[in-house]
Amino acid sequence: MWGKTGWWVVLALMMAGCGAGAPTDSGGLPAPVVLPVTANDLQIVTGQRVYVPAYSQVFLTPDGESLELAVTLAIHNTDSDNPLIIREVSYYNTEGALVRNYITEPVQLPPLATTGFIVSSRDQSGGWGANFIVEWGAEQPVYEPVIEAVMVSTRGTQGVSLVSPGRVLSQTRADD
Question: What's the pLDDT tens digit per position in 125-166?
């Protein structure tokens, strides 16, 4: 039906569209889909502080052989009408020491948008028991975002992947 030329056109359009609207950083990875906001003007009525376990390595044997994992922290705004304000994204190591802050100022995540923060499999600064703390808020009641860490790795012909959901540590509500 399409012929050889038609499939090449479809493939070329699909490849061209893969990066459309998704600016990348110097590593070729998608840049976070966030907008800067002024913290002084925020009037947060709801929000949470969320703990997200992340594993930058898993042990394969009792003698310490391990597999290094790449970690993606994903924050999905599930509200179709209102933005979220992300106030903190911090990465901690196995001992609980701060490794890095991913944002320095609050940023806005548009309705139904997703942003992510990546820890390369080569970056073992977090150790096997790393975690993130994410603090978000909103200026009106919103649906809770989905916040999770996705870990992946490959070795030979085998792949390993796991998802770790965030757990709410504290919550702010309009009625508090």
Answer: 999 999 999 999 999 999 999 999 999 999 889 889 999 999
pTM of the entire predicted model: 0.79
Label residues 134-157 b or e (16+ Cβ within 10 Å = b): bbbbbbeebebbebbbbbebeeee
Length of the chain counted residue by residue: 176
Q: Tokens in use for 14?
A: 């699909």
Any idea which fold 45-172 has?
A: Hypothetical Protein Tm1070; Chain: A (2.60.290)
* Cα gap 48→132, rounded to integer Å: 13
